[in-house]
Amino acid sequence: MTLLTRLLGGSSAAHAELLSYLFFQPEFVSAAIAAGREDARELIAAGAGWRIGPPERYAPERDCGLTEARSPRREH
Amino acid sequence: MLAGGGARGAYEAGVLAELLPWLEARDERPDVLVGTSVGALTATYLASMAHRPAAEAAGGLVELWEQVTQDRVIRPILRHQSPRTVLRYLAEVVGIPNVRLTSLLDPEPLRGTVDSWLDWRAVHDNVAAGTVGALAIVATSADTERAVVFVEGREQQQVADATLVDYVAGPLTVDHVLASAAIPVAFPAVHVERADRRGGWYYDGGTRLNTPVKPALDLGVDRVVVVTTHAPFRPECQEGEAHRAPDFAEGAFELVQASLVDPLIQDLRNLGKINLLTERLGVSAAAPYRTVPYLFAGPRVTGRLGRVVSQVFTRHFAGTRRILRSAT
């Protein structure tokens, strides 16, 4: 699978997302389980409840506009 | 409702390990299970464990995922698959009869793995006892190119939108699960026998209905827990380097986004809008629509699992030696 990773090439977020569908390595599986547990615990701790309306963004993910205004290259 | 996502199904197992006991404690453990692809595998496993406490069921799911390795899903690429793939492709090009390239990868080990996960007798017993109201598995017909929902248990209560989804009632088997997970191009289609004797070839349900909210609604649920591996939003700004041309993998990722993520976003927005409308109009005025509250259980930010991959890859798989060892 790591060969497939290299064949896909690159290290961008899109490559990583694409790889995640076929990354059946125990290291990823364990990390993904942990991420799922963490997100669910956060959901419960935040007082998870049944929602009626469309989803709303949890929080701004990145200050895209501000970052772009400051620099010709995007920061991550 | 459990969405597809291949190896990302491990994330859903982690979510369920926390969420399912919490729901059970609130007397809200789901009894209708609808899944696509790896979500179908998880849904079927949960159906087989529906008579057990939620913590035991979800804990067992995590234990099974912790045993997953690449060779329990696909055969090694270099040693087994590349020569076979090249030969089959050449044979098909030159016109050798009855030799066709059906997929790039060989998921032969997956059948044994799925079989070892699932207790079908427990599935059928739990459905018959009513512990599971319905188990539904979504696949895509290679013949009609339509989403097909195979249902064991409760039949759909609303008239399904005939332009989108077909429903087939009857006992489920491992073939239904494998068909639901047969990613086109990567994995070969799976032949499924049907109770109505209209068996055929099926691909991954995710190509048409990766987030099967609609089948859950058609099965008459009054609330939906949406377990998925994507945030229900598009990124707020573009990922990657802004000034270079995207490569082929980034192009492929766009196709994945279009087929797996955009429908999730749109389905949840539609559900939310219809809910608001039915609340405002009142149930009788809004018929046949009804208010169906939902609980979204997935990443709250985009790119969540991509970042997990990047961290794992940097930590464990950056060396050339490891790459070659895992490929053979």
Q: What is the H/E string of chain A?
A: HHHH
Q: Count the strands of chain A?
A: 0
Level of helix content of chain B?
40-55%
What is the average of the pLDDT values of chain A?
A: 74
Q: Which regions of chain A contain 5 or more consecutive residues with pLDDT less than 50?
A: 65-76
By helix and strand content of chain B, what is the structural category?
Answer: alpha/beta
Question: What secondary-structure arrangement, pairings included, does this model have?
Answer:
The complex is a heterodimer of chains A (76) and B (328).
Chain A: H1 2-8, H2 13-20, H3 26-45, H4 64-70
Chain B: H1 9-25, E1 32-36, H2 38-48, H3 54-66, H4 77-94, H5 108-117, H6 120-129, E2 134-141, E3 147-153, E4 165-169, H7 174-180, E5 190-192, E6 200-204, H8 206-209, H9 213-218, E7 224-227, H10 248-281, H11 283-286, E8 294-297, H12 304-316, H13 320-327
Helix pairs in contact in B: 1-3, 2-6
